Structures are given as structure tokens and as C-alpha cells.
Amino acid sequence: MSKSQRVILGMSGGVDSSVAALLLKEQGYDVHGLFMTNWEEDEEGYCTSAEDYQDARKVAEHIGIPLHHVNFAKEYRERVFSYFLEEYKTGRTPNPDILCNREIKFGAFMQYAKRLGSDLIATGHYARLIEHQGRKCLAKAVDTNKDQSYFLHAVHPDAFQTTLFPLGELEKNEIRDIATKAGLHVHKKKDSTGICFIGERPFKQFLETFLPAQPGDMLTLQDKKVGQHSGLMYYTLGQRQGLGIGGVKGAPDEPWYVIAKDLKNNILRVAQGDHPLLYSSSLQAEHMHWLAKPKAKVFTCTAKTRYRQADQACEVTVGEDSHISVTFEQAQKAVTPGQFVVLYQDTLCLGGGVITSSE
């Protein structure tokens, strides 16, 4: 590809996208930054969008590239946030970042980039694109500790054909070194965590402003009441922190964990210690989105059921209507409905689906 091509880069005001802009500029691309506002500022000021925009503006000025600003708050609420709330209503634990990548960063963003005359788009994600069966396919970043392919698995494979990931071959410490040497003021800026619309506020405080809580009983598997939950939506399978269970007479001195949610009866089931019910040897998933579909109906690979989890060896059976079954070599802890299982062959990301059940 000609280096004179125009690249529209998503800039967040962080060190990663700032270095991505710098690297692309040094490689000779016609780089334009695009800052996205995906959530309107709230009265409490938990969302740092305004500050981040000023950081992005300062970086763009420093390296000499134009910076555009677009508001996708409406699209975000319609395509991502509504899904987020609906999943919580059904007792599942969603991952909005995955939908945000598909619908906003590689959806609305790409469309807007074309209006700006883009030949290519780029982001500061830690991921790579490798050649597979004659096409560019998603693969893990060199820095496996920062790899974000898990969050990118739902993006349409066509989008990757005109995408650049400048950071895919670099380690995080190299990124900060590059930023420091280039005099970028964000070289020490803390990485953002979570999603903007929650920010630094307690998650429970945020969620209860949108969904009415229904307190209920915390029961053991023997139906012994050991506490009161403040609403099933605030808890996830395998959760240990924040249960508020004090000393229970006759119970051993071991931590309590969420074992199951009984939506029909509004009961949170809990148990102590490393309970067998925390583990699953298999799972079912739906809405499987393939980036590189194997030819066999049954095959072996590795899988992640949550971000930062080590790859787990498994056997996959491809069913009908975008369903798959995954059987693990070793039982997995806290496999959670609503989360995503993502499949890999070595570094190649095969795709992923929404976990519906496990056993």
C-alpha cells in the first residue's frame, strides 16, 4: 500500500493511540486523528471525555496532524448501552466493550472515516493482522499481557482488510519509551480501565440509576439464609468480594462465593470455599461469529471465557444456527452466561460467541 494513503486514527487522548499516531506519521501516512465522544458528560463528572479530548488535541498539535471530533453518543446508547441494560435485566453479565468495538469503533467510526476521505483506519489496540487463507485476519498482539483480540473478535472480518494496528508488534514498555523520547505529554498517563459511562463511580451506584433493584435472600445450597442481596443484577458467578456475609454460626472460616442466580425466586445462591459448582467442564454458546472458521465440525483449539485468562485447551463442536459446544481439558472456574468465549489456533483468533450455559 502507498504510504501517501490517508489513515483515520481513533485517538482517545491516551498514550497508546498517541504513539500509534506518531508511528503512522513517521511511516509516511497522511494521518488524521478522530476523537469520539461516546457518552455525554454527566453531572457528577465521572466521564473524563473533556480532559481526554484536550490531551488528544495537544498530542495531535505536537506531532502535526489534524484532529477531528465526532459525537457518537446516540449510536452508543442505541447499539451498545441498550443491549447492556437488557442483558442485566435477564440476570446475565454482558461485556459492552465487545459490542462497542463492533458497532462504534469498527462501525460508525469507519463510516465517518470514509466521509473524511480515509483509505485506511487505525486504532491503538494491542492486536495484529496476519495473512490467513488470502485475507488479513485477527491475531494476538506480541505483548500477550496487553493483547486485546478478545475484545475485537466480534468485528466483521471485512473491516480488518482496511485496518492498521500500529502497536501489535510492540510491548507496553516500548510504547511509553517511544512517547517519552518524542516528548508526548501523555507518556505517563494512566491507562483507562472499564467503560466511560461508569468511570470511577461504584458500579452498583451507576446501575441502580437505570434499573430498579429487587433485594432478596442469599441462601446456601441447603436453603439456609446467610444474608440479603441488594439485587441479582449486581452479582456475577464466582464473585467473592462485596457479598457482605459476616460470621455464620456453624460455618467454617472460608470465603463465600456466588454459585448461582435464581431469577424466578429472586434468590442468590452462595457457597463457601473452592466449591465444585464453581467449575464447568463444558459450555454452550450462541451467536457464534467466525473470523476464520475451521472446515471440520469437531476440532481442537484453545479458548478464553474472560479477558486475561490463560488459553485453555478444548474441543469444539460446531452445531446449527451459530451454536457451538466447548469441552475443556480441565474444568474452568466461573464460566459466566452473557460473557463471551473466544477461540484461538495458536495466535490466530477464530472468533467467539455468547455463553448461554455451562456444566
Walkthrough of the structure:
With 359 residues, the chain is of the alpha/beta class. It has three domains: 6-181, Rossmann fold (3-Layer(aba) Sandwich); 213-274, Roll (SH3 type barrels), CATH 2.30.30; 278-358, Beta Barrel (Elongation Factor Tu (Ef-tu), domain 3). It is built from seven helices and 17 strands. It has helices spanning 15-26, 49-63, 73-89, 96-115, 149-152, 172-181, 203-207, and strands at 6-10, 30-37, 67-71, 120-122, 128-132, 135-139, 163-164, 216-219, 225-229, 256-262, 267-272, 279-290, 298-304, 312-318, 324-333, 340-345, 348-358. The strands form four sheets. It has a six-stranded antiparallel beta barrel. α3 runs antiparallel to α4 (96-115). The mean pLDDT is 93.
Topology:
Layout: E1 6-10, H1 15-26, E2 30-37, H2 49-63, E3 67-71, H3 73-89, H4 96-115, E4 120-122, E5 128-132, E6 135-139, H5 149-152, E7 163-164, H6 172-181, H7 203-207, E8 216-219, E9 225-229, E10 256-262, E11 267-272, E12 279-290, E13 298-304, E14 312-318, E15 324-333, E16 340-345, E17 348-358
Parallel strand pairs: 1-2, 1-4, 2-3, 4-7, 8-11
Antiparallel strand pairs: 5-6, 8-9, 10-11, 12-15, 12-17, 13-14, 13-16, 14-15, 16-17
